[in-house]
Amino acid sequence: MALFDLPLPELERYLPELDEPADLDEFWAATLAETRAFDLDVRRAPHDSPLTLVDVEDLTFAGFGGHPIKAWVTRPAGSATDGSSLPAVVEFLGYGGGRGRPLERLAWAAAGYVHLLMDTRGQGSHWGSGGDTADPAPGSGPQVSGFLTRGILDPAEHFYRRVFTDGVRAVEAVRALPGVDPARVAVTGGSQGGGMTLAVAGLVPDLAAVMPDVPFLCHVPRAIAITDAEPYHEVVRYLSVNRERKAAVMRTLSYLDGVHLARRATAPTLFSVALRDPICPPSTVFAAYNHYGALADQRPDRAIEVYEFNEHEGGGGFQLDAQLRWLAGVLAR
Predict the structure, then answer these.
(1) Which candidate in 47, 199, 245, 277 could, as Cys together with 56 as Cys, close a disulfide (CB 3.0–4.6 Å)?
(2) What are the sequence ranges of the domains in the chain?
(3) 14 labeled part of a ligand binding site
């Protein structure tokens, strides 16, 4: 993929005007209050694992609507009962993937963190090793195949209202676990997981750190204008048939846009962006990065890793190494 978006100097200054709904904060406050009426209901079950240096638990907690959400929790062996108070990292997954097998993601536990990997409701069969969480409350109305147009005519019905709320509850669940320092919880994820990371950063005011990689669901109006790649193209296909519904569609997506939620974040952040990424175009990522924390009483520290020659894979292992080093520094401060 050739370079197709703005030049890097323009990206670094890119600060688009936003069409943020006036009742965004009220919408999300009501959503979270509705969900918190349900008990968090954290259930832990040991997982029979051949691993000896980490402990693995099969975790279930109540997400949006009280629906059961699955997660893997991995941590240094014995740390749940030895009096440790470890920092935690909550990780969200990319579009269509599920939590897979716990031995597939060991870096955070190996680095001394409690790691919660949240399954994404209704997903898990597009790539990877599968998922285990149903979505018992699908949005109403016709949709394009995929998830981006599920409940697209009403923000209260949209798939990502449920998923973002699940992400907030995942932070609450990890804070309820033994051996976790609730003041040192970070969130991370790539692509869809990066968009979820930004949403949770805007909805949880006391995170220690935020690490979105090549995030999806940012500056959605521009994304659907400049890329033909999925998943954004799901919206284009929907509107190519439902021409009269553009206003309703864009209104719904404005409640879910990572740029709008990122403005409310308060924790330090490390982003990544790939300049040849056709799935999450660079300008959409920089829109979120440049607006990040703008509404905070004190603007949080920001940093971004730029991968000039990469597409949606971004930095891969290089970015994970950067995250491990960056987060250790943040927590040391």
Answers:
(1) 47
(2) 11-328
(3) no
By residue count, the chain amounts to: 333
- By DSSP bridging, strand 86-92 and strand 68-76 are unpaired
pLDDT in tens, 215-264: 999 999 999 999 999 999 999 999 999 999 999 999 999 999 999 999 99
Q: Which residues contact 70 (CB under 8 A, 6 or more apart)?
A: 58, 59, 60, 99, 118, 119, 131, 132, 133
d(CA 312, CA 309) in angstroms, rounded, equals: 10
* 272-330 pLDDT per residue, tens: 999 999 999 999 999 999 999 999 999 999 999 999 999 999 999 999 999 999 999 99
Angle of helix 192-203 relative to helix 159-175, nearest 10 degrees?
A: 70
The answer to whether the CB of 56 falls within 8 A of the CB of 49 is yes
Q: Which residues pair with 56 in a beta bridge?
A: 74
State how far the Cα of 331 lies from the Cα of 326, in Å rounded to an integer.
9
Q: What is the set of active-site residues? A: 191, 277, 312
The answer regarding whether domain 11-328 maps to CATH 3.40.50.1820 reads yes
Residue 100 near residue 88 (C-beta atoms within 8 A): no
| Predicted model pTM | 0.97
Between CA 217 and CA 238 the distance in angstroms is: 17
SS3 173: helix
Q: What is the distance between the alpha carbons of residues 167 and 63, in angstroms, rounded to a whole number?
A: 8
> What secondary structure letter does DSSP report for 64?
G
Question: Do the Cβ atoms of 90 and 99 come closer than 8 Å?
Answer: no
Cβ-based burial of 200 (10 A; exposed 0-12, middle 13-18, buried ≥19)? buried
> What's the CA gap between 34 and 62, in Å, rounded?
12
DSSP state string for 301-312: PEEEEEETT--T
Type of residue at 176: A
| β-strand partners of 271 | 304
**Phi/psi at 8 (5° precision):** -55, -45
